[in-house]
């Protein structure tokens, strides 16, 4: 008898329009920024409603390895006692496991360097192919010693004297996280940091604004000083208490269920103003023909009778691509998702992954260098591979609503940002309000 693959998840098919209210856990991007800042603050900080998932647990483990203390004994919050301001010369080199988390691999190395720690930066095999050369080059320019020849994970970093800082130029066209990581650490450089981007367009711009905003919350003077220039004044962040907003990119997956089934899904605690890229899903939902209403801190999306195809530039909000592609692949007509070449350096090459898996489900898809055209919708079931990418699981769940027999390989990979995803999905389908 063959052994059943327990991680194969039959994505539920919608038998009726989905009607539910879904409260989603905290934002990954905000949680990991708050953790990083709290680790180097002058006083302890408390983060309320943090996301607890693989990426945030890796970030907590990373700051612990650097010498911070984490107290998660109270449900729904985490208190962080910062690491000592300067490393003692006798500290043994710590190892930081980045898993597949872009935020950990781009935020921790500059932070470790700034605080004079020696660390080995490692991660999943798949993290070894994520772009890291810009960060390694920037750190070398700042005088940090890094394993000779290394351009990606794993590498050793040695910076006993901290970082003097000043003005540096980088090419952040592969990821906004290079900018965010250097800015977060820049306040700890002796002279602060002026960071200039020099290259093709920087993707995911809202995430840079998020970085500046979280730094200002911790009392740091950080701002954009030009179209492609940011400046951070030197200073230690002060301790803070903050409540994390729900993760709007993860919320988008549930709102997508309303769009493809012609139902209604509401997400409470939606922030009226936010730097989260996921907020852009409101506009995408409207383009698909859905109605979007925001009242009393709750966002409700009501699906159309027929989903309209779309033609959109997702360069600023690339992390919404897998779910947007899934909705587009439930729509008759041709959709085009543009400005997403940098997604080839995400958890997996998302253009290749989406194109391959949607094609398996009978959709006709063209993969361009930096775009996807979905010519005709998915129409048959099949095994949907997820490539260690949480958002591929979420995309598959949306497709499962509109196509019979979608089976998701390695559903557990969704724990990168949403360990309770399948339970929340079932609850939504059961119409929980
Ligand atoms: O800083 C962050 O929290 C993120 C920035 C973006 O990365 P890229 O700029 O690499 O797209 C985004 O896609 C990722 O999910 C999270
Ligand atoms: C690109 C993503 O993650 P990471 O933070 O690992 O880059 C994502 O969550 O879509």
From TrEMBL:
Pfam families associated with the record: EPSP_synthase
- Catalytic residues at 319
Principal location: cytoplasm
* EC numbers, comma separated: 2.5.1.19
| Residues of the Enolpyruvate transferase domain | 14-423
Q: Tell whether Cytoplasm is among the UniProt keywords.
A: yes
Specify which residues bind 3-phosphoshikimate according to the UniProt entry for this protein: 28-29, 33, 175-177, 204, 319, 346
| Residues annotated as transmembrane | none
Q: Where in the cell is it found?
A: Cytoplasm
A Gene Ontology molecular function term for this protein is:
3-phosphoshikimate 1-carboxyvinyltransferase activity
Hey, which pathway is this one from? Metabolic intermediate biosynthesis; chorismate biosynthesis; chorismate from D-erythrose 4-phosphate and phosphoenolpyruvate: step 6/7
- What are the BP-aspect GO terms? amino acid biosynthetic process; aromatic amino acid family biosynthetic process; chorismate biosynthetic process
Catalytic activity, per the record?
Answer: 3-phosphoshikimate + phosphoenolpyruvate = 5-O-(1-carboxyvinyl)-3-phosphoshikimate + phosphate
- Provide the binding site for phosphoenolpyruvate: 28, 102, 130, 177, 350, 391, 416
Q: Which GO terms describe its cellular component?
A: cytoplasm
Q: Which domain of life is it from?
A: Bacteria
Recorded hits in SUPFAM superfamilies, A to Z, give:
EPT/RTPC-like
Q: Which UniProt keywords apply?
A: Amino-acid biosynthesis, Aromatic amino acid biosynthesis, Cytoplasm, Transferase
Enzyme class comes to transferase
Q: What quaternary structure, including any partners, is listed in this protein's UniProt entry?
A: Monomer.
Q: What does this protein do?
A: Catalyzes the transfer of the enolpyruvyl moiety of phosphoenolpyruvate (PEP) to the 5-hydroxyl of shikimate-3-phosphate (S3P) to produce enolpyruvyl shikimate-3-phosphate and inorganic phosphate.
What family name appears in the similarity comment? Belongs to the EPSP synthase family.
Question: What is this protein called in UniProt?
Answer: 3-phosphoshikimate 1-carboxyvinyltransferase
This protein's gene is called aroA
